[in-house]
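Sequence only, no structure available. Ideas?
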Amino acid sequence: MLRLIPVASLAVALSMVAGCDGCAPAPDDVDAFENDIDRDGTPNDLDDDIDGDDVPNNLDEDMDGDGTPNIADDDADGDGVPTRGEEGELIDETPLGGQDDQEGAQGDVDGDGIPNAVDNDDDGNGVPDGVVGGNDCNGDGQAEPEDQDCDGYCFLGGEGGYQPCDDGGVPGSGVPDSDGDGVPDSLDPDDDGDGIPDDDDTNPGGETPPDPVDTPPGECTTEDFDLSAGDVTPPRILLVVDKSGSMADDADGYPGSKWDAARDTISDVVTGLNGDVSFGLMLYPNGTADSNVCNEGNVRVNVDDSSAVQIVATLNLTSPGGGTPTATTLAEARQALDALGDSGGNRAVVLATDGGPNCNASLDGDSCRCVAPNQSDCADFAENCLDDGNAIAAAAAVNTAGFPVFIIGIPGAENFRDVLNGMAQAGGTAQAGGTSFYDASSTTELASALEEIAIRVGACRFDLPQNVGNADLTVTVGGNPVNRDPGRSNGWDLVDSNTLELFGAACDAAVNGGTVGAATVSVQICPG
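Reply:
I predicted one. Tokens follow.
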């Protein structure tokens, strides 16, 4: 941002350097240098910085450096002509420093009272000035209106009523404004707003790109995304946690019951990633050991970037009990993620379970694969049958809707590895090495799985700094080109006008097995 020195400080500073070459004199000496206040060899009426403070006149709150702001100064431009008389009548026809019928920044060729420096039509001929080629900003052969003529100023009305702006006929093709403060780089002494004057700044353009704009005609730009620096869109993850009765059992690698260990581990992870990942919480079943044992799960905490406290509190108030209605719960999860809308980070389901899905009363208890110890348990209560087909189909439906499904197996799930692998594969999260689900046989592995999944979900969606429209994009991961894949199975695709996402092996290459920052993702944008 443009930094203005307070008037009191300015007076002190000027008095200390009154003898230096190119510096403004102290206020008491102004009259002695009436025609060249800053003694830079350029007369005031031709000087676009009358007081030599490196702030252009049209942006300077104290143009003549006399210690009195323009708004309260009877002679703002220091030309010796009072702005107004005793009755308020205008005496100085050019109070902002313009001189009639003169060239130069502070001249006023057309005598309209607006200095050339801020007059977009210096000669008053009705054709905006400042653009090479007949003031034709967008190449259509016609002069553009004032707010589209690419000269860096827009008219607000009134004498001198112009202010710097980005006025390109094609958005973004006007005067650059790196820090978005409304002052074009050509006039801004600190282009990137970092507090370091451009003359002393080794990187005056700054590290942060300007606000999204359309691609300038004829120019290609390249954006590099450093995953280790967090150059990704925070993901939105719905944790779907099994709280069935078997979670009350103890297991090797888990201190206390599986529920207690999972609760504490999940709480630690969501707290550690709070703000970097938007988490939500769904628990299933929505019932107890005594009633509603097969009710599908429900969202207990909405997906939000500051939900950790709510998730921890909800887990602490929950006790395990009931069955494992995985298929119907995944259907609910899909609806919950769909309701969030496309705007924002990637959406995904992370399902943590210690057993096989069940709760389908339509299965044949005499012949089904039983999750209970004895087949008679299924014959007596068909809900004990393994509901693998529906669970895998439900995972596929969630993935088809655009939300990958990650499966974490907690001890007890080892008897259903085939089912968990099938769900992970259908959910689009198969891993190399033959094991598609995350086998968390200890709390350390559970925490690692949650963190790695958060990285995988978040590391493959990128907000581009401009709307690309019909632009040609070239995408590389670690220097290797990646093809566009509208089917979104292996490659890249646009999910909206300025958001790019990697899929499949391309995403895996960017994440490199969960190690953030292992591969730089580069996107070259060229006009189509």
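The chain has three domains: 1-119, 223-230+460-526, 236-458.
Hope that gets you unstuck.
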